[in-house]
Amino acid sequence: MKNKKNQVSVLFMLFSILFCVCLIAANLLETKQIAVGPISLTGGLIVFPVSYIINDCVCEVWGYRKARLLIWTGFAMNFFFVTVGAICDAIPGADYWTNDAGFHAVFGLAPRIAAASFVAFLVGSFVNAYVMSRMKIRSKGKHFSLRAIVSTIFGESADSLIFFPLALSGVVPAEELPMLMLWQVILKTAYEVVVLPITIRIVHALKSKEGEDVYDEGINYNVLKIFSI
C-alpha cells in the first residue's frame, strides 16, 4: 500500500508547474532593462516575485518539506532550461539565419551570472521557506500577512546579497551595488504587499480544498532531504 504522505496532490503539482514557469520566464525577461521613473530594473521583476508568493502558499498550506521539494524542482527545471539554451546558442546558426545577436542576448547567459543566479535562488528560497515555517509555529498559525512579508524580506535580502556581488562585482561600480540591492528588496517586497489580499484568498481556498494546514513541528530542515515529504 502506498503511503499518502509521500504523495502530492494535483493542486500542489499545478503550483509546482507555475513555480517553474515563473523561474524560466524570469530568466528570459531579465534580458530586458526597464525603467520605473528614475529607477532602472530588469523585466524579471514582473514575474520573479510570484515565485516567492507561491513559495509562501506552499509552505503555509503543505509545510516546509513540500516547499523544499518545490524549490529543488524549480532549480532543476531552470538549470535544464539554461543548459539547453546555452547549448543551442553555442551551435553555429544556419547560413540564412540572421538573428544570432538577438538569440545570444536572450540565451547566452554568462556562466558567472548563471552561477550567481542559481546560488542566490537556492539560498533566498530556502531562507524564505524557513522563516515562514518557523514564524508559523511561533505564532501558532496567526498573522499570515506578517509572516509572508517578513519571510520575503529575509529571502529577497539573501538573494540580492548573493547575486549582485557575485554577478556584477567589477561591472557595476561598488558604490552603486548597495542601492541596487536595496531597491530590489524594496520593490519585490512591495509587490508582495500589493498582491497580499489575493495571496490570502488563495491560501484560504487551498486549505479548504486540500484539508491541510501543516505545522512543521520537529521536522528536519536539511535542504538536501529532497524526497522527505
From TrEMBL:
Coiled coil: none annotated. InterPro entries: YhhQ (IPR003744). Keywords: Cell membrane, Membrane, Transmembrane, Transmembrane helix, Transport. The keyword Transport applies. Involved in the import of queuosine (Q) precursors, required for Q precursor salvage. The chain crosses the membrane at residues 7-29, 35-57, 69-93, 113-132, 144-168, 180-200. GO terms for molecular function: transmembrane transporter activity. The lineage of its organism: Bacteria, Pseudomonadati, Bacteroidota, Bacteroidia, Bacteroidales. This is Probable queuosine precursor transporter. One of its GO terms (cellular component) is plasma membrane. It is found in: Cell membrane. It is a multi-pass membrane protein. Belongs to the vitamin uptake transporter (VUT/ECF) (TC 2.A.88) family. Q precursor transporter subfamily. HAMAP family: Q_prec_transport.
